Amino acid sequence: MADPVIEMNDGAVAIAGRPILRHIDLAVAAGEFVALMGANGSGKSTLVRALTGLRPLATGSLRLFGTALDDFHDWQRVGFVPQRGGAASGVPASVWEVVASGRLTRRKLLRPLRRADRAAIDDALEVVGLAHRARDGVSTLSGGQQQRVLIARALAGEPELFFLDEPTAGVDLPNQQVLADTLATLSGRGATIVLVAHELGPMAPLIDRAVVMRDGRVAYDGPPLASDQVATAHLDLHDAGHHHHPEPERHDHAPHIASLIEGGPE
Ligand code: ADP
Ligand code: MG
Fold first, then answer.
1. Which of 99, 119, 178, 265 lies deepest, with the highest CB count within 10 Å?
2. Where are the domains of the chain?
3. Which protein residue's CA is at the shortest distance from atom 27 of ligand 1?
């Protein structure tokens, strides 16, 4: 893969001494749209935090845009919409203010917002369909609309690499569709996207590749999967001597998955 945007080699994360992620190898090329899937607790959010430098690696290495994490400072190139439960809850900010906060990394220190900043903020609100709610308090919006505010905030920074952690959880279908349209636009501009999702819903046609986490490891990495294939997806590559997953297999989908892997790009 020439010049991956993300390159993690043998990454491991431990929290309070407990190993959470182990032996993560992940390379994502510029412009790829990756769905990060897997059961609750499998390590998706931890992996996203590690990839955004928010969780240190215990071992292994991470490069972003070809630069080792320690030397990487171009954080304005990276957007991150965290899993819900934090940002918008109970904060009496207006929609515009929250989105404007996503522009901060682009600003020169202590300078007022310039015309380009205001245009980017208005653009982001337009893209997620909330321009008409700009002056309203975030708390007056529905859950799905609040999620779109967080997405607009990340968009306002005009990221080239965009992480979204379960942006569709608990979001109704019309809001999911707006999000899918937004991500299609961003992807069309060449952005690299890593989307954590259980159900892909309207995002499904956008996905280039699925990465499935299980017990803190990458269990599958290949062509997109339907949600009923995720639980049984497995890597059979390079793994012959390891046998880390002696799971009670449900064999209903296994042959199909195996054929997908054999036809895969890697
Ligand atoms: P997912 O996003 O796939 O649901 P997480 O990455 O949130 O999974 O969690 C993976 C594992 O790490 C879980 O067992 C979870 O309990 C543990 N974990 C995640 N964050 C913390 C934390 N801050 N403190 C302790 N354990 C954590
Ligand atoms: Mg999570």
1. 99
2. 4-240
3. 15
The widest CA-to-CA distance across the chain, in whole angstroms, is 60
Q: Please report which confidence band the pLDDT of residue 62 belongs to, taking 50, 70 and 90 as the band edges.
A: very high
Does 20 sit in the ligand 1 pocket, CB within 6 Å? yes
Q: How many CA atoms lie within 13 A of 97 on its CB side?
A: 11
Are 166 and 197 within 8 A, CB to CB?
A: yes
Near ion ligand 2, which residues have CB within 5 Å? 44-45, 83
Separation between Cα atoms, residue 144 and residue 180, nearest integer Å: 13
The alpha carbon of 87 and the centre of ligand 2 are apart by a number of angstroms equal to 15
The residue whose CA is least distant from atom 23 of ligand 1 is 15
Name which of 128, 162, 210 is nearest 48 in CA terms. Answer: 162
pLDDT one-digit tens code per residue, 32-60: 999 999 999 999 999 998 998 888 899 99
Reduced to 3 states (helix: H, G, I; strand: E, B; else coil), residue 187 is helix
Rounded distance from Cα 22 to ligand 1 centre (Å): 13
- Burial of 96 from C-beta contacts in 10 A (0-12 / 13-18 / 19+): buried
User: Does the CB atom of residue 43 touch ligand 1 within 6 A?
Assistant: yes
Give pLDDT, residue 258: 30
Structure tokens at 214: 């299980």
